[in-house]
Amino acid sequence: MPRRKEVPALGSLCLQSLVQHMQSVWVKDYSENYLDEYQFRFVMGPFNDLAGSLVQDLIRLLGESRCLTRAALHLLLLPHLRELSLRPCSGLASNAIGQLVALRCKNLSSLDLHGCSRLSADMLVDLVEGLPQLSRLGLAETQANVQVLSAVGSCCRRLQELDVSHCKKVSPRALQHLAYDPLAQSLCCPVLRILLARGLEPTEDGSMVAALAFLLLALPCLKFLAHGAVPDALRLLHGRQLDGMGDTEGFPSLEELGRRRGAAPGGPWLTLPLRQVEEVEEPALAAIHAICPQAEEVSVWLGDGPGPAGGWELLGWGRLARLTLGCAGRQGRVLAEVLPLAQRLGPRLQTLALHGFCCQDELSLAALLASCPGLQAFSAELHAPPDTDPDRETLAEPPHWDTDLLPHGLPQLQSFSLALAGTTGIFSAQHGLALRATLASLLCHAPRLQTLRLLGVPFPLDSVFETVLAAPGPPLLELQELSLAESRVSSQTVWLLLASEGRLRRLDLSHCRDIHRRDYDSFLQVVRKQRLDLDIAWE
Questions:
Q1: What letter does residue 25 receive in the DSSP assignment?
Q2: Smallest Cα–Cα separation from 50: which of 74, 15, 100, 24?
Q3: Between the chain's N and C termini, which has fewer beta carbons within 10 Å?
Q4: pLDDT band (50, 70, 90) for residue 244
Q5: What's the pLDDT at 504?
Q6: 95-134 pLDDT per residue, tens
């Protein structure tokens, strides 16, 4: 049975009380008598003795409950804060609030301004210049521009993580100013490890690709650069296509940056310390492997070419532990093509995600999982083979599923997601038997599983859960989230889950055609009556 609702911790109750009475008690005097009459540099209020982490929790709770006001924010911007996120109240973050942050919160090491578009670029510059100890800075969806990133590069020498995603004013030139100060003729952000730059305004002249290549060479500690054109920049560097890329505005050329990083003229090109590379197309794998040999996480788009999915280039990454493969070609790829790769990489893979593969061989999924015993997270979106005969004879379902298909199981697995799409064909009865046997064996041998998503499964799953929940152990003790959206499951399985041991906290039954309103109402009645800490969704 899912656990009963626990008595909230005293600290949580106190914070909830503060949220409920914030306007009527805690900020009432300041709001009525001082807010618009005076401008205080510092305020000695009721929260000065509250620990910085609790102040941040209070800001988050007020923002989530839409109870955060300008007056409350004035009293919560305190000098002892080390971390501050204005994301929950981005609409309140005006230039006046920015001035208070810059004035009062000098000890910040982390500042998240995601979505704070009311802060002007000049205010962002003042904030950056006034907070030199920042190690994490979030500027996504703000008015950040070349002046702001220039200030970040010049002032934030300790910065390790920066997010400028979806900033409409961040240009290729602005990115170069982040990494190099042309006036001082020196490199900036020497310890920056993560730079998120997704969704920037596209350019058609190749300047963004060149700017990304500039960042890759100018930031010696960069482990992850998130932008769709990063693979193109890596290919440019690998091919040494650097002619004509010198700069007349004080920036060094790519060739000069390469020499600073130790690349000898005419000798082998340097390698980069990137640990994560996204959106790689299959033909570029060899080049990107050559320049990023230390990559630990790679996502690849596969074409329609023959041979094993991803070729053999992926095997050269000795540290590869997290892999995403997606089918971008018109014909798609069959799941069995991943098996040679999984058999070689499987023992060290921790995360594997597959998108758009065709499940032609009904046993390919079981073979794939058996090849990756150390997986911690697995997700797959599979579609039916196009030539399946829908009139094929229906096979009898066994009275009890054999759970030995995966005898060694996946002892480290914490998250499993499987989505089946029948847009190109119909899964045969043989597929149904193999899939359910695979699931029964998997669920019986994954003791750490916390999240399970079985989406759009067109075969009845009741017998699978009956087998699993009756197995010794019992299995699924750690399961906290279960989604069966659009799958064939009846109220019988839900009642078994409600009666079983475990920690289940969320159950999604959206668009399950065998679950009816009367069933849903009965589930909710039991949850309320037994005070279970369980949220059930259905529609």
A1: I
A2: 15
A3: C
A4: very low
A5: 93
A6: 999 999 999 999 999 999 999 999 999 999 999 999 999 9
**Taking the model in full, what pTM does it have?**
0.88
Both tokens assigned to 342: 């999984």
**Three-state SS string across 324-373, please?**
EEEECCCCCCEHHHHHHHHHHHHHHCCEEEEEEEECCCCCHHHHHHHCCC
For 185, counting Cβ atoms within 10 Å of its Cβ (0-12 exposed, 13-18 middle, 19+ buried), the class is exposed
Return the closest-CA partner of residue 226 out of 271, 166, 278, 274. 278
The whole-angstrom separation of Cα 177 and Cα 471 is 61
47 touches 39 (CB < 8 A)? no
- Coil, helix or strand at residue 176: helix
Phi, psi of 388 (to 5 degrees): -70, 135
The amino acid present at 368, given as its one-letter code, is L
Q: CA–CA separation, 153 vs 189, rounded Å?
A: 5
Written in H, E and C, the secondary structure of 444-480 is HCCCCCCEEEEECCCCCCHHHHHHHHCCCCCCCCCCC
Amino acid at 481: E
Q: Tell me how many degrees the CA angle 495-435-474 measures, rounded to the nearest 5.
A: 45
Contact between 109 and 160 under an 8 Å Cβ cutoff? The reply is: no
